[in-house]
Amino acid sequence: MAEQNNFDRDAIKLQPLTPVGLLEQFNLPPKAIRFIRRHQRAIWLTLSAGIVLALAVSGFTTWREYQEDKAASALETARIAKQDNRQMLEKVVQEYGSTSSALWAKIELAWLEEKEGQRPQAISRLAAINTDLAARSPLKPLVLTKLVGLYEQEQQFDQAIAIATELAAIDGFAPAAYRALGQLHELAGKKEAAAAMYGKYLELTGAQADQGKADPMRDIVQSRLNQLKK
């Protein structure tokens, strides 16, 4: 007895042949499928561009990290060198100029110039660094404070006052800046301005005094203020 065929051959012959593509297998809506097929070239170009961009960003990030590591190593070597450290610091600046280590190398060079008695060169270098620093850079107060001291040593009081005023605008550094401004104005012979700056310092540090905490610096500033008011 012949085996029964479970398929209806006639029904298969009458069934339309509809091609089934990859998009249909994802059960996408017909409108979405038509849109994708109509714009597939643009879609592929966009996807390719995105992949290339992602690879480029990843490659640059890897290269940047590699440069930062090399710069940090070169900076540390320059710091601990017993001789020729100036040349080594300058090399860090030249070869890794866009890294944070190069910025630190510039600051180290300014300190070295100050140590060697080359204050004008140190001032010039730090002033250039300050110009390039972002307003919220954590290095900003360090550079400004150093500039104030160098300008004061050079008796360039107007420049020192301008830098200390910039420092006073940074959160957390206003008291020290106003105390420095009082001293600078006093050295410049501007007693009224000095008294005003000392007064601002005492006002800003008043909360600590109200808590009963001893503050020798407040006593010194108060003494200077009393002298100026005589």
Q: What would your notes on this structure say?
A:
This protein is mainly α and 230 residues long. Helices cover 76% and strands 0% of the residues. It has 13 helices and no strands. It has helices spanning 9-14, 22-25, 30-38, 40-80, 85-95, 100-115, 119-132, 140-153, 157-168, 174-187, 191-204, 206-210, 216-229. Residues 11-18 have low confidence and may be disordered.
Q: Determine Rg (CA atoms, Å).
A: 35 Å
Shape: elongated
- Strand elements, count: 0
Q: How does the major sheet shape up?
A: none
Secondary structure layout plus pairing:
Layout: H1 9-14, H2 22-25, H3 30-38, H4 40-80, H5 85-95, H6 100-115, H7 119-132, H8 140-153, H9 157-168, H10 174-187, H11 191-204, H12 206-210, H13 216-229
